[in-house]
Amino acid sequence: VNRDNINEAVLNEDVLKQAASLYVSQEGENLLRELALLENARMQSFDKTMRRRVNSRIRSDKFKKTAFIAGPIAACLIAALFASRFLNVNYGTGSASTNTATAPQADLPSTPAPPAEPGTSAAQPEDTAIPARAEIMLLSDKLPEGCILTKTDYDYEKTIYYITNDLGNDIVLVTEPAEGSEGFDKNSFDSVDINGTQGYVLAKSDYKALIVQTDDMFLTLTSRFSVGDLIKIAQTVV
Amino acid sequence: MFIMFFAFADENSKEKFELIYNKFNRLMLKKAYEVLRDYDLAQDAVSEAFMRAYKNLHKIDDPLSGKTAAFLIMIVKNAAITMLNKHSKSTVADLSEYDEPDSYDLEDDVISKITADELMQTIDCLKDELKTPFLMKYAYGYSLKEIGKMLKISENNAAVRISRAKDKMAKALTKGGDAQ
What we know:
Chain A is of the alpha+beta class.
C-alpha cells in the first residue's frame, strides 16, 4: 500500500484489497518464520534422537566387533581345551591300564558318604558342623515368594539364616530353642499377630526387628528397611 | 495420512496438496491447539481445514508462500473456533441478528491521514469471525458464496460479517481506537 495513496485517497475497494493483501503477506511471513522455528525445534529434537541412535549403533557395532574378534579366540581356546582333554584320555586309556586306578582315584573316599541326618539341608555344606541342639529348618521351602536364602550360619544353639528378597532387602533370621533364650523387654515393642502367635515388632529408623516366640522356638528377624517383609517371612516360618 | 482419501484431478494437484500438507500441517495443528486446547479436537480442525483447502486447491498458486500459510491458518482457526463453539454449546458471536448487510459505505467515508500501519493494525484488531471473511474477500478474492461454503455460514451471513468488518475498521480509523 502506498502511504501517499492512503493519505490522499478515500478507502475504496481497491485500497481494501491492497491492505488485505499486504496484511496477509505480512501475516504469512510471520507464519513462515514461526514455522521455521517450529521445524528448527523439531530438528533439534530429531538431532537428539539421532545422536542417541547413532551412539547406540556405535556401541552395538563395537560390541559386534569385539564379539567378532573374541568369538574365534574363545572357540580356539575351547577347542584346545577339548583337544587336550581328549588327548589325555586317549593317553591314559591307551598306555597302561594301571594308571587309571592310581593317582586320580587316590583322593576319592573309600566308602560312600553316610546319608544326611533327617531334617538337615543337603545343600548346606556346613551341615557337617551343626551343633547337636541347633534347630534346623528347611527354610528355603518355607520362604515367601521372592525371598531367597543366601547363607546359613550356626552359632552354638542359634541358627542364622541370611535372606534376600526381590527388592534387595537383606533380612537376618535367627532361630534358637525357646528354653535357652535370654528373653527381651516387651515394653519397648509393639505387638503383632503372626498366625495366632504373639509377635513383637520394633521399628527404628536404622533397623527393624520382629521377635516371635513359639512353644519350642524363639525367632528374631531383623532388617534395615521393612517390617512388612519381616512379618511375611515370620508368617511362613512360624 | 488422509491425503489418500482425496481424489485428485491430476498428479499436479496431488503434489501441490502433499506439499501444503507436509509443510503446514504441524503449524496448523499448533494454531488449532492454541484455540481448542485439546489435541484430538485440534486434529479434527486440521482435517476439516485441509478438506476446505482441498476444495479450493485451484486457487492456491504458490503452495509454499506466506499467503498460502496465512490462508491455511485462517481456515484452520475458523474451523477450530467453529468446533469450540459447537463443543462448548455456546455461540461466541451470534450474527444472525445482522442478517441484513448494514448500510455503512466505507467508500463514501473520506478518511484522510491514515497510514498503512494503522490500516494493518485495524485489520489485525478485528475479531476472527469478521477478519476471516473480510480477508477471504479482499486478499484472496473469494466470492460471498465461496466464503459461505468454506466457513459453513450462509452467503448473507458472510456479507454481513464483511460489512461489519469494514464498519469496525472505519470507526477505528476515524476515532483512532481499535476495531474490536
